[in-house]
Amino acid sequence: MLLKNANILVVDDDADVLTALRLLLKSKTKNVITTQSPNQIQSLLAKNKFDLIILDMNFNAVVNTGNEGIFWLRKIKEMDPEASVILITAYGDLDLAIKSLKKGASDFLVKPWQNEKLLLAIKEILEQKKSGKPKKAANLVSSTKIIGESSVMEEVFFKIKKIAPTDANILILGENGTGKDLIAKAIHDNSMRKDQPFVKVDVGALTTSLFESELFGHKKGAFTDAIEDRIGRFEQANGGTLFLDEIGNISLQQQARLLTVLQNRTITPIGSNQTIPVNIRLICATNQDISYLANENHFRKDLIYRINTVEITVPPLRERNKDILLLAQYYVALYAEKYLKSNFSFADSFIKKLKDYYFPGNVRELQYALERAVIMADANILTEQDLVFSPIEKHQNKKVEKNQTLESVEKNTILKVIEKNHGNISQSAIELGITRTALYRRMRKYGL
Prior knowledge:
The chain is built from 19 helices and 14 strands. The model is unreliable at 62-66, 135-140 and 396-403 (pLDDT under 50). Helices cover 44% and strands 12% of the residues. Strands 2-1-3-4-5 form a five-stranded parallel sheet, with helices on both faces. A five-stranded parallel sheet has the order 7-8-11-6-12. Helix 2 (41-47) packs parallel to helix 3 (68-79) and helix 17 (406-420) crosses helix 18. By secondary structure, the chain is of the alpha/beta class.
């Protein structure tokens, strides 16, 4: 169906939003009806056939389901199961909006949207409705090597699609080896800054003395080893994207310095009195849990809010069962070409060993294990003997993990947290979210 033949309903309690969408769509569609009251949806649907409904997720009225958008989406689907609905949401509702896709929404928009993106989304939905062939989530992210068809990765792809065109600051969470750097690059490659620099810095590896020089630059003679002027990473990324990896490992002093720069959007190189304005899109990543970052003994809350407009959690490989074989096929083909070997096939024992393994090192561990398998293989069929996992990682088997009791999980968690905090019971209790008394009680229970 062509956009010019479409009948569209817009439901939003914000009069400015209705006006903006009416002006945008009026000349490009057959008919646009707008309403501020979701209570009119059912009567409007009874009188009209709409090709598309654009629906806000939050209204002034209180609906007992906890989210008005989901409530009215369900009502629309009850009346017209084939209805196409685009939800309008703010950053804070992004996870809920993604879940709404599973409840029948066709797409969602993040405020503030770009008109070109909105029109493109509408055209795609109308075309898909006509052809009956839905677009795969994995294809929504272009120019990346992120492989995945699992439901958890679909959510990641949807988030990238929605947040990439904006300038929102992003915090990427996930275990080591999950591919947080690939997610950051995908956001940049699908953004309006894709033709500008993408600069990555492992800030967790920078010493206190190198931190400011590396990020903000220095002038010749500013310190003993400053034999020439140096441009910092902020200035290198000007106009583009700055990716700060391992942000959870920087000191409170470094956090304060970084916060000042992000608030003022200017830098001052070491040894200079001149401030330099910078225009960057900031993406940060850490393997620390969000509860760790929320503890002000570790991380400043004002900085967390500054860097975490939108949060993306990259799932560990053990939660991506559907993707393990896809990734294995990709890496085996990659290394077969690199080492000038013919194509490989997988024996059943090889596939079973892959699927039974826990992958504490995530995709990175899988990648290195498969590279070794390709190098050492004597035949073109890979078997379980060819698959050797790294001794660097602590091996766990999925079957053992699944059979663990709740008590054993709790005991192991307590042990890990106490060990992490070097025996500090007060700090361990804070991190576990319980009182010291409760922690001592559990320690006695488990003989710790």
